What does this fold into?
Amino acid sequence: MDTVKLMEVCGTHTMEIAKAGIKKLLPKNIQLVSGPGCPVCVTPQSDIDRAIEIARKKDVIMTTFGDMMRVPGTIASLADMKAQGCDIRIVYSCLDALKIARSHPQKKIVFMGVGFETTSPTIASTVLEAKRSKVTNFFVLSNFKVIFPALEAISKSKNLKIDGFICPGHVSVITGSAPYEKVAKRYKKPCVITGFERTDILKGIERLVKQKKNNESKVEIEYKRAVTRDGNTVARKVLNSVFEARDSEWRGLGVIKKSGLKLRKKYRLLDAERAFDVKIPKSHKTKGCVCGEVLQGIKSPKDCRLFKKVCTPRYPVGPCMVSSEGTCAAYYKYGE
It folds into this structure.
């Protein structure tokens, strides 16, 4: 059989593949590459810069998930700004940020959110609670992404020829398998939704290889204990009632149409982008960092001259080394 190139688009899969040494178990003609499955990694510099500028305001308490603190912006990271005196706090959920807003009515509390369809419904429910309880000092800075437009962009890419996708289990619990059918049919890319145990991943790879061998292109669910075709309709209803699609920039992939989420007009008073008019510096690519190419599956961390030399988990240069789900962090911790 010819070479089969498969892409996993889930950070948890990336870490498990590295931890289990799955690449070493496969025949040489089966190649695994990592895609834009880490929401922290695909967040562009401009989004970090906007959060920093908002956090610099005296009456603001910025809140976010821990992984976002050390992601480099154009000039600094949120961790750097916290060290300089900005009130920036790590929270474990958006509800924690709402709780801070209730206990600090004299402050403006901003939650900087990132994530795919797994995370965004929980933020949507928090927005509904904030409006219901009439909390007026709580704002959401939405950097949420939708995975399917990114899969289409990768499928159309002339630089990267992918033979199939190892699809994310967590996202698919919410979305169901139906949205992948467009990718499989229109772009002839087999899709298999897998769980996170190494046996799940190996079974998913086996199914994709069989589809390639049989010249098939369909969507299969290996992770049937959690994923259905329709997914979680209640979660999606909540999500769609609060957010609507917009064009969004992905680190490495550029602007992808309708791949991001913004608050609907009825919730504009909670929209941090509207509430805080800030100027952000012009973004530029960090010299030597190949995170953008890694997220596209064009390069691997070992192709980066900074990897393990200048860029380490303690002193990360790019977001792929910052996140616990980043490809560079996986290579650093477990090797190829």
Q: What stands out?
A: Residues 102 and 135 are 7 Å apart (CA to CA). The mean pLDDT is 94. The longest helix spans residues 198-213.
